[in-house]
């Protein structure tokens, strides 16, 4: 069972994340913690490219990689860079509800027509492009995906703490994910 946990007080933050950059992210974004000054990034945030999301965090607080569905499978070198050169030890992986990378095939015609109208492509090019890439970028279900993507990243980067989360579009808050 997977459930979303509303973070509205410091006590709601899971103990393993308290007094870490993960906990700070939740405090800044959800709890209105006053901004502190940072001279280097404290964590890496992976989040969707979707325009409906805006994080409330201080300057210099985080590296951010945005990609469809918070999918970092194709951003590995950038993740490694943030760890090795940026010296971060934490990753917050933030999916969101109502994500466009869920059920991509339902938008196949819209995608193809859009590429023809906006990008100047022909139908064959657009169709081939969609068919080649949609299976790679499909995430299935937002919450299940960030949980499994976090597990994959934990195996790949065993020295890091990786926290999956969900951003709800309707209230602009971040929720932790509890697995039972
Ligand atoms: Zn999305």
| Count of individual beta strands | 6
Order of helices and strands: EHEEHEHHHEE
Which cofactors or ions or other ligands sit in this model? Answer: zinc ion
Number of helical segments?
5
Helical percentage: 25-40%
Low-confidence stretches: none
List the helices and strands and how they pair.
Elements: E1 2-6, H1 21-31, E2 43-47, E3 62-66, H2 76-84, E4 90-96, H3 108-119, H4 123-137, H5 142-156, E5 161-168, E6 173-179
Short description:
The chain has helices at residues 21-31, 76-84, 108-119, 123-137, 142-156; strands at 2-6, 43-47, 62-66, 90-96, 161-168, 173-179. The protein is of the alpha/beta class. The site of zinc ion has 7 residues, from loops.
Description:
34% of the residues lie in helices and 21% in strands. It contains five helices and six strands; from the N terminus they run E-H-E-E-H-E-H-H-H-E-E. It has a six-stranded mixed sheet with strand order 1-6-5-4-2-3, with helices on both faces. A hairpin with a 4-residue loop joins strand 5 and strand 6. The longest helix has 15 residues, at 123-137. The termini are close together. The mean pLDDT is 97. Zinc ion (ZN) is lined by residues 48, 50, 69, 96, 99-101.
